[in-house]
Amino acid sequence: MPDATHPEFTADQLQEVRRLQGLYPDRRGALLPVLRLAQETFGHVSLEVEEYVAGLFDLSPAHVHEVVTFYTLFFQQPVGRHVVSVCHNLSCHLMGAKSIVEHLSRTLGVEVGETTADGRITLLTVECLCACEQAPMMQVDDRYEGLLTPEKVDRIIAGLA
Description:
- The radius of gyration is 18 Å and the shape is elongated.
- The chain folds into 2 domains: 60 residues, Orthogonal Bundle (Arc Repressor Mutant, subunit A), CATH 1.10.10; 77 residues, Glutaredoxin, CATH 3.40.30.
- By secondary structure, it is an alpha+beta fold.
């Protein structure tokens, strides 16, 4: 994997950045997909990656950092092969999210924000997954799981490679 401390896109990736920027009346509209490309390329969005992407858009690194820290699917540190994010907003909290997080922490042997020793799973909490009717909710990679119980969580985790 390319180095997130010295980021540089390939010529093909730079061509894709320019293509994405051309899709929008204001090329800043392509910032999210370019950040996604950067994360896929470098594994996470380090401060150096933020600065590199900012240069591609003639933006300040602070502006890019604000975007990266606003969205929960951008990771500023390396993460495991799977990312498990449990919603802890009001509805999920009231429906037992705290106990789900505690169960996952015990089961995985990590605290929120940590990755298992084998690099398999990173456990996170997020502000909202926008599915209050399915509370408590979690996101596993790009998949959403709701109406969680410890038993359901155990089945989901067991199914991760």
